[in-house]
Structure prediction request, 828 residues.
Amino acid sequence: MLNTCPMVAEHTDVRTGLGLKEIKRDFLDNLFYLQARFPEVANINDFYQALSYTVRDRLLEHWVRSARMFKNTAARTVCYFSAEYMLGPQLGANLMSLGITAQVRQAMRELGVDYDALLEYEPEPGLGNGGLGRLAACFMDSLATLRIPAIGYGIRYEFGIFRQEIHEGWQVECSDRWLANGNPWEIRRPTIIFDVNFGGHTEHYTDDDGRYRVRWLPAQQVRGVAYDTPILGYRVGSANLLRLWVAEAVESFDLAAFNIGDYYGAVADKISSEVITKVLYPNDEPAAGKALRLSQQYLMVSCSLRDMIRIHLQVPGKTLHDLDEKYAVQLNDTHPALAIPELMRILLDDHLLPWDDAWEITTKMFSFTNHTLLPEAQELWPLPLFRKMLPRHAELVFEINYRFLNDVRLRYPSAHDRVSHLSLIDEYGEKSLRMANLACVGSHAINGVSALHTDLLKRSLLHDFYDLWPEKFSNKTNGVTPRRFLQLDNPALSQLITDNMGDEWTRNLDELRKLEPLATDSAFQQEWAAVKRNNKARLADRVRRDSGIILDPDWLFDIHVKRIHEYKRQHLNVLHIVSRYLSLKQGKVTDPVPRVFLFGGKAAPGYHKAKLIIKLINSVAEVINRDPDVNQYMHVAYLPNFCVKEAQFIYPAADLSEQISVAGKEASGTGIMKLAMNGALTIGTRDGANLEVRDEVGKDNFFQFGMDVDEVHALLGKGYHPRDMVELNSALRSALDLIANGHFSGGNSGLFRPLTDSLLNHDSFMVLADYASYIEAQADVDKLRRNSAEWTRKSILNTARTGKFSSDRTIRDYCQDIWQVSPVEVGI
Ligand code: 26W
Prediction:
């Protein structure tokens, strides 16, 4: 079955057989030899570790063979630089990609081990905040499945995104001890290490050969150590690598200090080094601008670039001059943009390349993706901090800027404002380094993540760069992996699809179009609706277990899950719920459509308004769920700790997907794609990828509402007075008043006043302006819901027409337009 290498052959069928017998033997061997346990006394962690190592061996089988093939063929390789990877639980996904889920389920059953309990027990590597981090994980899955040689570089935070608990309706952040019992999916690489400099100063001198040289004399050195996680492609027998860096002390124990009784001094270096990769910054929009964040970013890019150069120069005949032929490096937003001056430093100072050669290699190798237009998310590093921590990079950035602005002035004589807009340095107030500008200048390609977003980048945030280099810009609409977000999270629906049209769709999602003829087939509709109802019942069981709230799976499940942010307008959803509650209380609704409103999502710990929105949702839920006048028709619940594992129970159970951001703010959105793939209908604005989902599924199968970007700008332009909206709409007024006067906060009218006041006085995200249109669209939802055959037909069409939103399509676009890389056959 496997390749001819005798060494491989002789251990394969013995060591990593995929049969039931081999899996059972290896599981028991690992329980015995790794966990030193026998079944009678083993606990769930022992069983989980034993099974994970059993599966890991079979992964490594593919990974080792791929690594050898990529090395021997010196294959052009994509390097994805991301500060975040939201991988999700690994066990189920790896079994599916190996195609041995059934065998393992059987093996566990025969050994009396509860496989589903192991899946539930598995800690999730939450090394990301939200969209950007999950996209990186979907991309790694698609790169491996498309057999594109790739390395994902990032940071192995000891503590990932906080675990969210809800206490009395408030978010409480708990540290994410995902490594408490070790991580069986990673391999520590004690010999793949790089010492990274921080602080200090530079010395410029002429060396003995009369060459101009610069040396950096750092104040502190930290050691970056690699941790490798194999990323297996789906049923292709090849695997890529995720290499995450950890900061450790160069010298973890100072004996001299210890001997003079300075015990803290003895470990000071250890502590100050390890803190660098201790924790993920939990903000997913506002840039923190903290020194620790800068050191995280620098450690990641410095270790990654030097590791790439080490791998490249291992191949005889290869030099730094063909580094950009070997590698295509994608910068996942500005967080890794320091890679640009770092590569220049390495090529100039360590390898003495002339500036122009170094710059050509750099710009040819890097490409940059922007994921947000929000001003507060744009990374600006105060120059004093930047110069103090990275003195050599500050010099290089100035030189890059000097040369760049010279070109700009040649191109636009006397266009001073344009020069100051394009400059890497923000001269206003405290001088700071514009990381987005650096990323644009140092990259040969720049892209947004949806058609609208890329268009807005060209019209606003990066307008001057678009005017200067239109050829650099392209759009790459996001995608999601159908392996995790259809096959793994919705096996019943996957089976129904395969039973009716074969499984080619698992390799090419556009095949789902073949479902269309079945959309009007009543027998198929019934099966489809039954699968959806079972998924809702499964989620209802989970909600009852976690929060005791009883949900009826026959009700419409209205799902709003994503990070909590005012631009995503969870509070607009609450205004609909309160209006619905009021009209029920006032008996205005005849034969209401029973609905469950489910929310999920974390708020950045310092984002108080977002945390108040979480409290509001829970307070409204409290009142509604216990009110007999309305709780026969509506229920509200907040699902704690929204993460990839929870999402896999939520997406398959959705009837309605809430994508209600104000037009122009959501760069793309990827939740909308996962929900539509699982048969949910979307109620959404003309923002981000919503437009492309609407165009694919058909506008009749999409509940569109609200202003588009131009209408938003027009209203802002002519002056937006939110109170005018309240004057015009009594239902809106009553809903706002009810919230403001403490109806949902036990009479404490002050609690939500900050929210209602900011809506009435500023409403920067146009909640009140889009309210009426939203309510109308929600009424259309109710109307359609009363016709279950019609609803199911549209649900089937949504799944059938979401092929475009596979991350395989997105990665093919990047390979073709930006990376110019092609698949390498490794063979099963
Ligand atoms: C510096 C703090 C910080 C951290 C993360 C600023 C910005 C970010 C990310 C760019 C925020 C993010 O996750 N953006 C989301 O990226 C997704 C993937 O492209 C898009 O689908 C979402 O629309 C976008 O909000």
